[in-house]
Amino acid sequence: MQVVPRLETGGSEQSTIEIAEALIRAGANALVATEGGRLASAVTRAGGEIIDLPMASKNPITMLANARRLAKLVRTRNIALLHARSRAPAWSALMAARMTNRPLVTTYHGTYGKPGPVKAVYNGVMGRGDRVIANSNYTANLVASRQHVARDRIRVIYRGIDGAIFDPFVVPPGPVARLRESWGVEPDQKVVLHGARLSSIKGQRQTIEAIHRLDREGAFEGGVAVFVGEGLREGYRRELADLIASYGLEDKARLAGHCGDMPVAFLAAHTALVPSLVAETFGRTSIEAQAWAARSSSPISARCPRPSCRRRTTRPASRAIWCRRAMWPRWRSRSGRLWR
Question: Which end of the chain is more exposed for a tag (fewer CB within 10 A), N or C?
């Protein structure tokens, strides 16, 4: 049974769905304990089962109650293994695993920053699994150094994408045209796609600043930036909308919200941006863009792991640009190439 806070959008949520699908294909049962979300239906469509529990709660009393509920489920449903993908659910899963003598697997989907002593204890639960999955060597090294997890308990399992889904030859032109129309993009405009949850570490604010400078120099003519994704903080979305309005970029930037068909989104774009301001444990968006025969530039910071997509096609669709705080100078030097 996998335990996750919510199934809204993001890499860990997508991994949850993919593991559920793999379990069903293997003939096993796939249970996911979560508060639900827009992606919960993907689990049930695959044949899995959603267990509705308040797994996102950080209230100690609720976490303890969740542990007891999970333990009861483990016994009544004869669950063989618990798999936690986030910290609050991991505490409940750890307690349930100890109550029922079941193995616990934890997966690191993020670095969790450099916390103080109290937060370090809270984060430490992710290193207490019988096996700890890291999604890259970069993550594995962080887990070993920060959580003092023995190397023999860490398993590096690289994340990837389904090449059958991210294949430009299987996407008909109709959905692409409809999606561009829903974004308010003209047929002759070139889309710069920023696909990530709305978060200050994902670089949306810096991207808008870069567009403003490019537009002021006349270097963004014929382009429109589309920000695909949602976040937990409505205030941040309003801040981005206000920034767009203050620069008069309503015709150059779109906050498009959630997109349920990223393969179509990438095919509708000319350029894909991955401007994270912190080192990413795994950049799914970058290899999704590369799957369309996109080219990805080197990250400005060597600390950012750079995933790659080995499968190449003969039909180019977009270009993926990795960048951090120095994004605008890089854009400025490449702006001519972006539109070729």
Answer: C
| pLDDT digit string, tens, across residues 99-133 | 999 999 999 877 776 677 888 888 889 999 999 99
Determine which of 114-118, 177-181, 307-311 has the lowest per-residue pLDDT on average: 307-311
Residue 69's domain spans which residues? 2-156
What letter would DSSP give residue 35? -
Q: Could you give the 3-state DSSP secondary structure of residue 319? A: strand
Residue position matching structure tokens 């003969």:
314
| Structural domain total, the chain | 2
What separation in angstroms does the CA of 185 have from each of 173, 178, 181, 198, 213? 15, 10, 6, 21, 21
pLDDT tens digits, 209-220: 999 999 999 999
DSSP codes of every residue in 247-309:
TT-TTTEEEEE--S-HHHHHHH-SEEEE--SS--S--HHHHHHHTTT--BPPPSSTTS-----
Q: How many CB atoms lie within 10 A of CB 17?
A: 21
* Rounded Cα–Cα distance for residues 107 and 86 (Å): 8
The first and second tokens of residue 46, run together, are 């695959």
